[in-house]
Design a protein that fits this description.
Number of strands: 39
Oligomer: single chain
Distance between the termini: 90 Å
CATH class of the domain at 20-286: Mainly Beta
Largest sheet: 10 strands, antiparallel
Low-confidence stretches: 5-18
Radius of gyration: 26 Å
Strand content: 35-45%
CATH architecture of the domain at 20-286: Distorted Sandwich
Length: 660
């Protein structure tokens, strides 16, 4: 009897040990740990040394039939591993980078499990299922709990009747977690930054979101943490008058998926020093690898743009508008100043009938393509995203044969499973015909640009177009621009559309739709081409303004749009930033400043051996009066030198270092 009791006790202890156990994975340098507690549910905790980054937070997958994967879980097996690889990254802020992580995989009874990876700059986990039948996912439980009421930097989505509609183009709030509920029920979206007492910062992100909805963020009822909220799957859609697709009926589940699949990565990127945040590569590294065999045809570069400046060309001998003379002028201008693309925006097709094969008869698109081709320029056409999706194969076959380089697709304003499925499909179709896509009015990138690098830009940023209609009291562009490298760029490239030539101090700024201007200085606009990740970037202003300011125009076009490496030289988030880039033997240094004028000492030790010529574009002495004031100088420098650069209110600088 005693033997039998002892045997039962051992069995009970074995079961308890199996069902209540901690599993930890550490970063290669040992500084970050992610621990999974498997008991009556699964929770994870993230620590950086002694500091708790994420307090115990639940993980689960709730199926439509009521099954909860994560409730009373049992570990069937665990496996550890590690990997170090060099990831080639076309059209990214660095051409390649080293990625190394330790991994932990927990296979659970019930044909599901958790995979975790710990990098030196963050941790991530994702769920997986190994079931034969298809699944309807009612909810995925994603939590980020905290041990204190930390301050957050985060955006809030648009306040529509349907809370899952958003353009993802908002400025950033800085407030404690407990302030989340003061925003009238509005949801947030990633990236979200957590500011810890030790000065470290975490950025919450997601990656490899395919055939699945993107995640919004809400605050839990106790206001001690953040929770994921997913838009339910759309069952029916209605077209609006301008061709934008709106959801009219949603399912009682968020996703309908294959039973054998992995789910998106949930990421906590971390940096003890804030300078490491703008060069965090976790979203790119965790995305599915490139599905395009040959990417050499995907060309980065600079583009003109007609819409922002309202085709404000003057001092010409033709009537400006939607006509061939206007766009031949754009092409001639692009040729003279070494642009790669000319973007033709809204108006080239009658989009209200939703037929992108029905071009505006005032424009001879085939003729303009031939005219541009002779000058080694290619055209990009704007269109409503849903109109393209409905005709993608026909549109790509027709316009690629004509010579169109790609499309700027607009007005998605969703991140439900259906929309994300369609963006992957559109990217694949465009790639088939060797065409690029620039997605506007779209969700923040989640790895699609690695899988399909022909998707060169995602808007999803409070960019310069907002200056056409946002009053100065509602826009703080100096602060906004300083936060973008730490926030939005952690997820991937954007389409801010800088290059304004009408620059104003904050006090003198006015929002004028047909005569737009920028807040801050001319040098700030030039610096944006170094600091912002925009593989195909536009110069948004009128060609006439650029011709009048040729010195600035040539300088901006001497800055590449993709680089071999990127680094932050110095920063104080929200106050100033100095970011460096390298392309071959040439270095580029850009500076942004807030509204307080200041001088910074710039250490040039990053140059390495050799002598360089530094072309310095900086704020002029009278920039406090006239924001367009700048000075362009040139001097010889070496890595032993230091430069002292004065930046005005809302100012900046840009330096090109050419090796002698």
């Amino acid at each position: 009897m005693r033997k039998k009791t002892f045997t039962l006790l051992l069995a009970f202890m074995a079961i308890f040990a199996l069902s209540a156990k901690n599993y930890t994975v550490s970063s290669p340098d040992g500084k970050l740990t992610m621990t999974f507690d498997v008991s009556d549910k699964v929770t994870y905790t993230v620590r950086a040394g002694d500091a708790t980054l994420v307090a115990p937070s639940a993980i689960a997958l709730v199926l439509e039939d009521g099954t909860v994967l994560g409730e009373k879980p049992r570990v069937a097996s665990s496996r550890r591993g590690n990997k170090s690889e060099v990831i080639t990254a076309p059209l990214y802020r660095q051409s390649k980078f080293q990625s190394a992580y330790n991994s932990l995989t927990l296979k659970m009874k019930g044909n599901w499990g958790i995979e975790a990876r710990a990098f030196n700059d963050g941790v991530a986990y994702r769920l997986f299922t190994t079931m034969k039948k298809d699944l309807n996912i009612k909810n995925e439980v994603v939590e980020f709990n905290f041990d204190k009421d930390y301050n957050l930097t985060l955006p809030f989505s648009d306040l529509f009747r349907d809370k899952y509609i958003s353009s993802f183009e908002k400025q950033y709030n800085y407030e404690p977690l407990s302030g989340f509920k003061n925003h009238g029920g509005r949801l947030s979206y990633m990236p979200i930054m957590v500011h810890y007492d030790n000065g470290g910062k975490a950025v919450l992100l997601e990656s490899d979101v395919e055939n699945y909805p993107g995640m919004f963020i809400n605050c839990n009822d106790a206001q001690t943490g953040l929770v994921g909220e997913f838009p339910p799957y759309p069952l029916k859609h209605n077209d609006t008058s301008n061709g934008v697709l709106r959801v009219s009926e949603r399912a009682p589940y968020v996703a309908s998926v294959k039973g054998n699949r992995t789910f998106p990565w949930r990421i906590v990127a971390y940096a003890a020093d804030e300078k490491d945040i703008p060069v965090n590569n976790m979203v790119y590294a965790l995305a599915s690898p490139c599905r395009i065999d040959d990417t050499s045809w995907i060309k980065p570069g600079r583009s003109t743009w007609d819409w922002w400046n309202h085709c404000s060309i003057y001092n010409v001998d033709f009537k400006v508008g939607f006509n061939n003379d206007t766009y031949k002028y754009y092409i001639d201008f692009a040729d003279k100043y070494n642009f790669d693309y000319v973007l033709i925006d809204d108006g080239w097709y009658t989009y209200r009938n939703r037929n992108v094969m029905d071009a505006n008869p005032a424009l001879d698109i085939p003729m303009l393509c031939e005219y541009a081709k002779k000058k080694n320029i290619r055209l990009i056409l704007w269109m409503v995203g849903d109109a393209f999706d409905k005709q993608a194969e026909e549109v790509c076959a027709y316009y690629s044969k004509m010579g169109i380089a790609g499309f700027k697709l607009d007005f998605f304003e969703r991140q439900d499973q259906h929309l994300i499925e369609r963006t992957y499909s559109m990217a694949a179709t465009a790639a088939k015909y060797k065409m690029i896509l620039n997605l506007h009015g779209v969700y923040v990138p989640k790895g699609l640009n690695r899988t399909y690098p022909n998707v060169v830009n995602f808007e999803s940023v409070f960019g310069l177009e907002q200056m056409k209609w946002t009053d100065k009291k509602d826009a703080d562009m100096a602060r906004n621009d300083l936060l973008i490298p730490f926030m939005r760029q952690a997820a991937g490239p954007h389409d801010y559309t800088p290059g304004a030539m009408l620059n104003r101090t904050r006090e003198m700024f006015r929002s004028i739709d047909h005569r737009p201007m920028s807040q801050g200085t001319r040098a700030h606009q030039v610096a944006a081409y170094i600091i912002f990740d925009m593989p195909v970037s536009v110069l948004c202003d009128s060609p006439t303004n650029y011709v009048r300011e040729s010195e600035t125009t040539y300088f901006m076009n001497d800055i590449p749009t993709v680089f071999d490496s990127t680094f932050v030289q110095k920063s104080e988030m929200g106050k100033y930033l100095v970011m460096g880039r390298r392309k071959g033997d040439t270095f580029y240094l850009g500076g942004f400043n807030d509204w307080d004028a200041r001088s910074l000492e710039v250490d040039l030790s990053f140059l390495g051996a050799g002598n360089y010529t530094a072309r310095i574009y900086k704020d002029g002495m009278n920039v406090d009066r006239v924001a367009e004031d700048y000075k362009l100088t040139e001097q010889s420098v070496t890595s032993a030198d230091k430069l002292n650069i004065a930046m005005g209110s809302g100012g900046g600088f840009a330096i090109i270092f050419t090796k002698k």
